[in-house]
Amino acid sequence: MKRGKYTHWLFIIPALLFVLIFVYIPILQSFYFSLFRMNSYSPETIFVGLRHYRDIFDDPIFYTALKNNTWYAVISVLCQVGIGLVLAIILESKFIGRSRKLFRNIYFLPSVISVTAVGLMWYFIYNPNIGLINSLIRWGGAKDFSFAWLGQPKTAIFAIIAMSQWQYVGYIMMLLIVAIQKIPVELYDAAEIDGAGEVKKALFVTIPQVKEMLLVTSVITVIGSFKLFTEVFVTTRGGPYDTTQVLGTYMYRHAFFFDAMGYASAVAIIIFVITFVASLLQIKLSTRN
Amino acid sequence: MKKILTGFFVLSLLLTLFSGMVAAEVQLKFLHRWTQEPYYSFFEEVAADFEKLNPNVKVDVQAISNDPFKEKIKIILGTEQGPDVFFSWPGEFTNRFIRAGQVYDLTDVMEQGWKDDFVYSQLEPFIYNGKIYGSPFRLDAKVFVYNTKIFQEVGVAIPETFEDLLRVCAELKQAGITPIAFGNQAPWAVSHYIGTLNQKCVPDQIRLTDIQPEKGTFTHPGYVEALKKYQQLVPYFNQNANAIKHDEARINLFNGKAAMMYLEIVEIPEIERSAPEEFKANYGIFKFPVIEDGMGDQDYLTGYPEGFVVSANTKHPAEAIAFLKYLTGKEVGKKEAQELGFINGIKNVVDKGEVKDSIYDSTQIILEAKSLVNWLDSSLHAKIWSVYGPELQKLTDNMTTPEKIMQQIVKTAERVRSEF
């Protein structure tokens, strides 16, 4: 068969069409919808231009949501990637011995449970009256202790963030373990000959060697942080009084509770821009080296 | 081999024939909001009974639970596969669908005699701009349910006025008992308090104008007064009201951990079904006390019926209306009263003695009320409630003031008016 000038297009087109129809066109469509006042059950639409964007930037709850997402991203990168790395190094080091597999499974297990189930479980753990945490504190001496971890605006979002750390630290750990296992043994042998101990080996061999994976996991956690939805939805639904609202629930609330589909589309576009810029930045950073 | 093939051929032929027969039937989609038992089975039975009476109709029953229903119904109505008959709360919740042309106008069929079956006060909520759009399925109103034993032990009487209520609460609190159980994680719970207080503090004509999204201003000082009254109640609620679900708070009432709770009459069957014997033998109800200097009518009762409507997009209006008529009619109403403890909107649907006295008597309170006041959350425009709800939760935690809240509501109402 003779190879034509355009044959390669034949191979690309199916995938291209797929991505176009299911990714790029909906994004453009969302932007188009964001220019209208509309709801899901009425055919009536009113053109409002960029008014929704102005309203969003005027809405204090939008900034609460943005702040919560940012907290989530910062804490997740520190905890999941940070602690995940420490755990991975410990589990791949010599002194853990035979129980390595057991611990690996113990840490990994939470990440395979559905988020909804985890959310419900933690909802009960945090319950002010019957919850595990308050029961422990009461058992420890504070007899009348009753603190609503998910009901107090100061603690609620952090209670949700803590829950996610518990769930995903094992997942990130697993990715890093795979990366560590790929490091050539010779490097460690050489370090040992140079007199490096376990800590120095971790600092000067392991971490530089898994740098790429660290970057990938950071990208995953940051983007995940801005797409956050289920964790908040099953525990607080954005309450008390919108203090745990994140961009995802903020969008949902406007779309399906306040009958403002156009407004919600505008929020969707903003979420898209944020995650897009975040991943661009991170890709840029990773290719520079 | 040949036999098998022939068998297969005959089977597939039969299947085709059969499916053709099914297609000739009328398929009705029916959507309600009771996913728990015994309610879910009740609707299945009603649908099955209707199918027996109308062999050409098949009713496909689906349910979505209360809070998600409010969100999902909006999506479902926008699709081609929407339900033919569906649940809805009368008032602004339904009116928005009526404005969008999604609800079938029942006025003509109602005028042919059907209308006279109902207690008019219970049908009235389904009227919008002079037309009838739905049929009531169960009556409801808000009352205080209290623990008679605790009241006796502390030595307090049923409060007649709001000042009395505060005094009773203070005495209960002094005796070391939580006066009022309150679970406000979903803010519809606080909306019931504020709905009642608004009605009692604001002149009725002004309040009824304000709930119309195209006219509402919310500038009357009675609204601030209502929130101030609510603030006086807050110290008597259990701790962490915003973190507790309504049902959790109700369990505390059942277990004697609180003296009273502002409940719906439709929750009385739930008391009869699942409260401990101890509580069942020692509870009573009283209406929200009057506010002596309140500018609204003090004889009104907060509470509205719930019901079903027919979709304007239904392909089988005759069958859908027939099903609605059956579902909210006398026969099903009797079964509903006896099995679920709910009373529907039909005149004299049950006589005294046919159901538990507690259910019969509490229903009389609704039927005797001078007028009913719709739930605040379903009577307000979605955008106004979107501000009101969270702000009321803040007020419950003492994080804002009545004046600040009403300033925001006035501003939001102004925006909503400008969009009409």
Summarize the structure.
Chain A has 13 helices and two strands, in the order H-E-E-H-H-H-H-H-H-H-H-H-H-H-H.
Please characterize this protein's 3D structure.
The complex is a heterodimer of chains A (289) and B (420). Chain A is mainly α and 289 residues long. Chain A has a single domain, classed as MetI-like fold (Orthogonal Bundle). Chain A has 13 helices and two strands; from the N terminus they run H-E-E-H-H-H-H-H-H-H-H-H-H-H-H. In chain A, helix 3 runs parallel beside helix 7, helix 3 runs antiparallel to helix 10 and helix 12 packs antiparallel against helix 13. Chain A is flat and about 75 Å long. Chain A starts with 6 loop residues before the first helix and ends with a helix. The mean pLDDT of chain A is 88. Chain B is α/β, with parallel strands linked by helices. Chain B folds into two domains: 203 residues, D-Maltodextrin-Binding Protein, domain 2, CATH 3.40.190.10; 199 residues, Periplasmic binding protein-like II (D-Maltodextrin-Binding Protein, domain 2), CATH 3.40.190. Chain B contains 20 helices and 13 strands. In chain B, helix 11 packs across helix 20.
Spatial order of the strands forming the largest sheet of chain A: 1-2
- Approximate strand percentage of chain B: 5-15%
Quantity of strands of chain B, as a count: 13
Second rung of CATH, namely the architecture of chain A: Orthogonal Bundle
Strand content of chain A: under 5%
Q: What share of residues of chain A is helical? A: over 70%
Give the key terms.
heterodimer, A: 289 residues, mainly alpha, MetI-like fold, two-stranded antiparallel ribbon, 13 helices, B: 420 residues, alpha/beta, D-Maltodextrin-Binding Protein, domain 2, five-stranded mixed beta sheet, four-stranded mixed beta sheet, 20 helices
